[in-house]
C-alpha cells in the first residue's frame, strides 16, 4: 500500500477541510499575513526532532502505523501544528506499547493529523474530530487556548488579582473560595465577558476592528486600566494547566477516532451524544495516563505526586468545561433577558439548551474519576489522600468560580450590556 | 485570489447531475427550515466536538468561514446578480439561482464541500445579505 505523503496531508487539509474550519487560510493575502515560514521553521524543526526521538523509543509503533509523513517539515504550515502532532504521537505511541505490554488489543490510532485553525470564537472553541481524504483530522481552534487562558486566569485571580507568576500553584489549593468574594470582578473576567459578547463578530472581517477591543473601547463598564491578558505574564498554574488541558483535549478527540465516531447532533439524540462523549473521554484518559512520563517535566512545579498529576488532566478538562459553560451560558442568558427581539431570544434559548448539555457533560466527567483512579491503580499508581484533597479543592473552587462568573455577568448594568451587544452586532455579518 | 469564470444558467444546470438538482429542490422547499440546513451542514462538515456545540450556530459559523473562499466566485457573477435582481423571480428561479451558485462554488477553493447544500444555504440566507460586503463596495 502506498505510504501517505506530506503533500497528501497538506492537500487534504487545505482542499477538503480548512475552508470551513478556518476563516482566513483560504484567502491567499490573509494566509500570507498570518504565515511567515521563517518564523515557523524553528518550531517545526524542534517538533520533528521530538517525533524522531519518539521513533527511537517506540519503533514498533512507527513500524506498524504510517506516520512517515510526520517526519517531513513540509507536512506543516505552523510550528504549533507540528508541536500538537508530536504531542498526539507521544500519546498514541505510548498507548500502543502499553497495550502490547499488557497483552491488550489496542484501538486504531493511525492516520491522525492535528491542525490548527485561526477560528477564535469562545462559544465554538473546542477542538473537533473529522475525517477527510482517508485521514482523521483533529482541528484545534486558536480560540481554544485563548478561552482557556482567560478562564484559568479568572479562576486564580478571582481570589488574588494579578497574582505573581510563581505563587499560583499553592494559591490554587487555597481556593476553597466559598468564603471569599471580591468587590468587583477581576479585569481578566471583564475582558473575557467582552470577548464572549463579541463572539458573533469574530473571525469575520479582518480589516474591521476586533469586536472585543471595540467593546472595551466604547462601553464604559468594559474599560479598564489593568493590563490586558495578552500583555502580562501568565501565572505558572495557568501556563501548566493550559498545557495539560490541550493534551487532554487532543486525547479526547483521538478517543473519537479510536471508536470511529460520527457526529451526533445533541438536539436529536442527547443520550447517544453524551454516551459517545463519555466513551471518548475514557479512551482519551487511557492515552493521557499511558503517556505520563514526558509530561512530568512540564508539571514539575505542581505540588502533586504523579497519580495526582495524571488525574489533573481530566480535572482541568472539567474545570475548563464548567467555567466556559458559566461564561457562554451567562452571556446567552443575559442577552435573552435584555433583548426585545423575540426571534433572537428563541434562537439564543436553543443555544442555551445545547449549553445545558455541556453542564451535563461536565458532571459526567466527574463520574469517571473513580474508574480513572481504578485504571491507574491497576498500573501501580495510587492517588495519595493529600493529593485527592487538593484535587477536590480545585473542583470546589471551580463550582464557586462558575457561580461567581454567572453573578458577575448578571451584575453588569443592563445599559452597558446592551450597548456592548450593539457594538458587536454592528461588526457582525448580516447572515 | 483566483479569478472565477462566470457561468450562465444553462451551463450551470448542465453541470449539475439530475440527483443534485433534485436535492436542491428539496433543500429549497418551504418545509425545509434554514435552521435544519445549518444543522445538516454542521453535522456533515464539523464532525464530533469535544464539548457540545449548537449545531445551528456551528453551521452558521462554518458558512461564515467559507465566505472568504467563495465570495469572489458567487458575488462576482453577473448571472447571479441578474437572477437576484429579477423582481419577477419565483420558486423555479430560486432553484436556478441555487444551480448557478453550486456551479460557481464548484470552481472555488471550497469545491470539496457539499456544494448543493452550501448553494441552498446561500439562497435561503439571501444572496444580497451574503454578498453585502462585495456589492456595497
Explain the overall architecture:
The complex is a heterodimer of chains A (431) and B (137). Chain A has 431 residues and is mostly helical. Helix content of chain A is 62%, strand content 4%. Chain A has helices at residues 6-16, 18-21, 28-34, 37-57, 59-64, 79-101, 142-157, 168-173, 187-197, 211-218, 236-259, 270-290, 306-338, 342-367, 369-378, 385-410, 414-427; strands at 112-117, 128-132, 135-141. In chain A, strands 1-3-2 form a three-stranded mixed beta sheet. The longest helix of chain A is centred in the last third of the chain and has 33 residues, at 306-338. Chain A is globular and about 65 Å long. The N and C termini of chain A lie far apart (46 Å). With 137 residues, chain B is mostly helical. Chain B is 69% helix and 1% strand. Chain B is built from nine helices and one strand, in the order αααβαααααα. Chain B has helices at residues 9-15, 18-27, 34-46, 55-75, 78-85, 91-105, 115-125, 127-130, 132-136; one strand at residues 48-49. The model of chain B has no long low-confidence stretch (mean pLDDT 87). Chains A and B meet through α1, α2, α3, β2 and α11 of A and α3, β1 and α4 of B.
